[in-house]
Amino acid sequence: MKKLCYQTLKDQGYEGYLLENAPERVLQFGEGNFLRAFVDYFIDMMNEKAGFNSKVVLVQPIANHTGFSLADVINEQDGLYTLYLRGFENGRKVNDKRIISCVSRCLNVHSDYEQVMACAKNPDLRFIACNTTEAGIAYDPSCEFTQTPPSSYPAKLTQFLYRRYQAFGQETGKGFIILACELIDDNGKELEKCVLKYAKQWELGEDFIHWIEKENIFCSTLVDRIVTGYPRAEAAAINEANGYEDNLIDTGEIFGFWVIEGPQSLKEELPFAQAGLPVLITDNHKPYKQRKVRILNGAHTSMVLGAYLAGQDIVRDCMHDDTILKFMNKTIYDEIIPTLSLPKEDCMDFAAAVTERFKNPFIDHALLSISLNSTSKWRARVMPSLEGYVEKFHKLPKCITASFAFYIQFYHLGRELTDEGLTAVRPNGGSYVISDDRSVLEFYYQHRDSSVKDLVHAVCTNKDFWGRDLTEIPGFEEAVISILEDIQATGTYEEMKKCL
């Protein structure tokens, strides 16, 4: 079977959209599944629907020590790959296939350092996208200007920007629109801070620093799409059906939403709207991040531990259980949405999409995988809704309060502490491993024989967990004690019913 490339598609008489030749206007740090199913998909759609006419140069930011180079595979396939976006949309099952043709080539910043830096001299280059993981945007003072390359991504970017400044520093409009996709708060602003630190540390001059600030736009963004990546179990059948070998098949959910914080002038340069894409350009991305974290992630965290203890294993199956679904919806619509700053209708539309996403028949999203680090997740995703609800209504939200008791019970069942985590016995039989920070696991192990009253008090007053004393919330400790006693008597499923 022939490899996927332009010639293979021509030989097949392929009639879909392809862009074989166009200027390289986008540099992308990161060649992984997420960016290829998200950013590159949007660019490919803009090419077809809005005449964006842009190729993307991918940069593999990590050194190749294994002998396998994804960059080589990408280049062997002429940058082409097949993307499947799958799930429920407006109540119907969707499985959309698209060959993405916006990628021109892939370079490795370690083995192809000078080729990457040479892209800075391309007058057509205007956009930089990046997703170098949450740890990627970090300032490391040990990085030096003479290193080829330095270890941190912001240091590499500073070098690249300096090459750009040397080539076009005297011209306006030759800086970059930089779209940071890392999952940290204010990702664009944090990236800019790191770059400015390196410019000063390396003594690259005040003129260069002024150019960075005046000619470049560092955009903080919110990205939202579950990307499931290479479908290993299905790949052979997919290749057989397509009639070509594609070693870069990518899969993700049909839902996608991108919020970009920046000036409205971006709409002229990035024709997302003309292509009909779900991209919002705004002067403040934070309300949308709040909505995603509180509704999507908050629904997960508040529901999954109770559902797991009730015998469920997969998110999709929970959506077909009337009690669990109603519990989740009551949490979202009655207790979370009233605390959010965006208009209620916008939040309700997003919540409806969340339910469809959770029903996705193509994704087996394990409850146990979502349970990882539930302590910090509950604090970040659910606690703000608890506090907002109490402040607004002067009473406790039933479902959120119950979810805190679910969380405690999930951890309290732990009986054996090992290097792997805290091993617990599931109510319906079998065991599971609780994964969290070591200090959290040790805390619950030390309290494994505590009474319900002592346990709840110890959890609620642990400021290291919550950043505050939760017993200060009127009635919260007493309510959690009562719920946890009921859970230990009749289980989490019956407690969910009581909340409805």
Structure write-up:
- It is a single chain.
- The protein contains 22 helices and 14 strands.
- The mean pLDDT is 96.
- It is of the alpha/beta class.
- The longest helix has 24 residues.
- The radius of gyration is 25 Å and the shape is globular.
- The strands form 3 sheets. It has an 8-stranded mixed beta sheet. A 3-stranded mixed beta sheet has the order 4-3-9. Strands 12-13-14 form a 3-stranded antiparallel beta sheet.
Task: For the structure shown, list the relevant keywords.
500 residues, alpha/beta, 46% helix, 22 helices, eight-stranded mixed sheet
Brief sketch in words of this structure:
With 500 residues, this protein is α/β, with parallel strands linked by helices.
List the helices and strands and how they pair.
Layout: H1 6-12, E1 24-29, H2 33-37, H3 39-50, E2 55-60, H4 70-76, E3 81-89, E4 92-100, E5 103-108, H5 113-118, E6 127-130, H6 153-168, E7 177-180, H7 187-201, H8 206-215, E8 217-224, H9 235-242, E9 250-253, E10 257-261, H10 266-269, E11 279-282, H11 286-309, H12 315-318, H13 322-336, H14 344-358, H15 367-370, H16 374-393, H17 398-412, E12 414-418, E13 421-425, E14 431-434, H18 438-446, H19 452-460, H20 463-466, H21 476-490, H22 492-499
Parallel strand pairs: 1-2, 1-6, 2-5, 3-9, 6-7, 7-8, 10-11
Antiparallel strand pairs: 3-4, 8-10, 12-13, 13-14
Helix pairs in contact: 6-7, 11-13, 11-14, 11-16, 11-17, 13-22, 16-17, 17-21, 17-22, 19-21, 21-22
